[in-house]
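Write out the bound-state structure for adenosine-5'-triphosphate.
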Amino acid sequence: MNATAPAAIEVIGLTKRYAQGKPAVDSIHLRIASGSYCCLLGPSGCGKSTTLRLIAGHESASDGDILLENRNITDLPAAERGTAMMFQSFALFPHLSALDNVAFSLKMKGVGKAERHAKAKDLLERVAMGHLADRKPTELSGGQQQRVALARALITQPRVLLLDEPLSALDPFLRIQMRAELRRWQKELGLTFIHVTHSQEEAMALADTMVVMNHGVIEQVGSPHEVYNRPASEFVARFMGGHNVIETPEGKVGVRTDHLQVLPADQAVPDAPHTKMALITDVEYQGTYVLLGLQNPGTSVTASTTAEISVMLSESTFAARPYAVGETVQLRWAPEAAHPLPH
Ligand SMILES: Nc1ncnc2c1ncn2[C@@H]1O[C@H](COP(=O)(O)OP(=O)(O)OP(=O)(O)O)[C@@H](O)[C@H]1O
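---
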């Protein structure tokens, strides 16, 4: 992001300490472009939800600042920040109609019934749910519930919508449908979305900007393409999947599983640069491709051995020269396919 472009959210040295020891969020710096879809991603315990709660005002910062459109909101109450939160599986009140769910926060603010219902109706119309305003959540499909939850979050007119694992409780089929819908709403509304997920696939599908966190710090910020193709660290390469971390004389490099070529042992060029000998320990048929699992030669393979290296071969490449478990092969990669991994 251009350093001078307006940021919807800017986080400066943000830190959260719950107890002694390493902070849950450790002095992070981040700028999230206005009108973008940002995914905070990382393994369990990395600090992504804490970061979101700090931005929402559901946690107080131990140190650092949070700016929303250049306004310092670090110490403001949640309701005065200009953010709204959408929770896991939408968290609608089961006993309230769609309309009352959407109007709820205005009721809490003491807004009169006619006014809050008119505003809620307006928003339900906007998300194509006006005709179902009287239904209870259990009478709505997952997609319809998501739209009600979105309307409920939008009623406070937030500048930034915060989404905490909104899709994680849904079955896989619905999750894919719902994420496409979230993406469409974000573009249509032109709002900034910050979405926490532990799913690499979800973040890749949704994000303009991915923020990969680990142990309370940011490992990498970039577009899905940048993060996937140029992982900045060994952690990111391993966490994103689809990569091998290979020791070379120049240090560790990351190489995508589909960027490794396999040569049968009788075609191997001994000690050539950008090559490695390996023993095939698994062959998995996956439909459009075949996944080979490999170990360093000489490793004794047991049922619990996990592959050190994975290679994805297209079905046709594998059909032209099938490989078998126990075969020793040479792996080869183009120098430009290998990315140095500093740590
Ligand atoms: N209220 C709390 N009190 C004490 N420690 C906490 C609290 N909330 C979170 N933590 C700790 O802070 C760290 C970061 O937690 P956080 O919930 O932000 O991680 P996360 O990446 O969102 O994980 P998950 O995907 O499991 O929700 C963890 O070590 C967690 O145990």
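---
The pocket of adenosine-5'-triphosphate is lined by residues 18, 24, 42, 44-50, 198 (CB under 6 Å).
The first strand starts at residue 7 and ends at 16.
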